[in-house]
Amino acid sequence: AVAHDEQGVTNFELHELYMASSRIIPRSYFRFGQFFLSIGRLNRFHQHDWPFTRAPKVHRTFFDDEGVFDSGLEYNFLFPTERVFNLNIGITSGYRYGHSHTQGSKPKVPTHYARFSSFFPFSTTNGLEAGLNYLGRTDTQGNQLQIAGLDITAKWRKARLIKYLFQSEIWYRSEIDALNNEKNQAGFYAFNEFATGQQSSMGFRLDMYKDLSKLNPVTQNKINNISYGGLLQATYISSEFAKIRASLSHEFDREEGITTSKDTRFELQLFFVIGSHPAHAF
Questions:
Q1: Distances (CA, A) of 79 to 41, 151, 185, 214
Q2: Contacts of 160 (CB under 8 A, 6+ apart)
Q3: What's the CA gap between 189 and 264, in Å, rounded?
Q4: Of the candidates 31, 13, 182, which has an alpha carbon nearest to the alpha carbon of residue 98?
Q5: Are the C-beta atoms of residues 177 and 191 closer than 8 Å to each other?
Q6: Which residues pair with 245 in a beta bridge?
Q7: How far apart are alpha carbons 213 and 253 in whole angstroms?
Q8: Is 73 exposed, middle or buried (0-12, 13-18, 19+ CB in 10 A)?
């Protein structure tokens, strides 16, 4: 659960409350209740477990500042093969999508999604995970949403120290409204982090987002547009229970060769774990 301020009003939000089991069905894990949807990389983790403070623009635009959560059922199957293959499928109510404080309304097609992933070991301590993702829904007004993407995460470890981390997601979104008008967007980010000591690391991220169907409101011609972003950060981990992260980011939007907006931020994040925190999957 989380409480945060929005325009002077404190809002309380339940993020996750579910029951789960990996024992009832062999090679399977399922959960039902309310949870973050298991698609992509960032959306599968709480924000405090992200390797950076703020999500890239493609994630904020397609999913939300923090991520998409909903109430429903999710099922994961581990294939009985020598190489690790996982298929995760889910269906949720779809009454809401993204950040909302209202109950929403019944959709024509509920939110449904799937992620097919595999793990590629380089050694006993190093490896790469890749996943193919899909999400779809149709809201109560008949607006259709489809999202497809690829996520890649690679880690090189020395004992408990992550010497190098690479994380990237590539996404494509298609929206068709009730009048059959179509909008398409695409974007990606690539994040690299290097250990600079036993308790410190440096990281940088490159972001890109493009509206593939943006039109000039007067001529109705397509507008050449693109958004870029860059982030530089430093992290100090005093123990497994506390860390400090400072980051400097810059984003800018361009249309027809002209910069239309800029956003430069310095952020300082303090992170504390009270009590035990379970280990994550890769």
A1: 20, 20, 33, 42
A2: none
A3: 17
A4: 13
A5: no
A6: 235, 269
A7: 15
A8: middle
CA dihedral for 268, 67, 230, 273, sign (positive or negative):
positive
Task: Output the six-digit token pair for 52.
Answer: 């950076």
Q: Which two tokens stand for residue 67?
A: 């991520």
pLDDT higher than 80, residue 281? no
pTM value? Answer: 0.92
Q: Is 180 exposed, middle or buried (CB count within 10 Å of its CB: 0-12, 13-18, 19+)?
A: exposed
Euclidean distance between CA atoms 111 and 113, whole angstroms: 7
Alpha helices in the chain (DSSP H): 57-62
Tokens of 282: 């890769």
Q: Which of the pair, 175 or 239, is modelled with greater confidence?
A: 175
Eight-state DSSP code of residue 215: B
Residue-wise pLDDT for 235-247, tens only, equals 999 887 899 999 9
For residue 264 the two structure tokens come to: 């430069």
pLDDT in tens, 101-130: 677 789 999 999 999 999 999 998 899 999
Tokens 């429903």 belong to 72
- Locate the DSSP E strands across 64-108: 69-78, 84-92
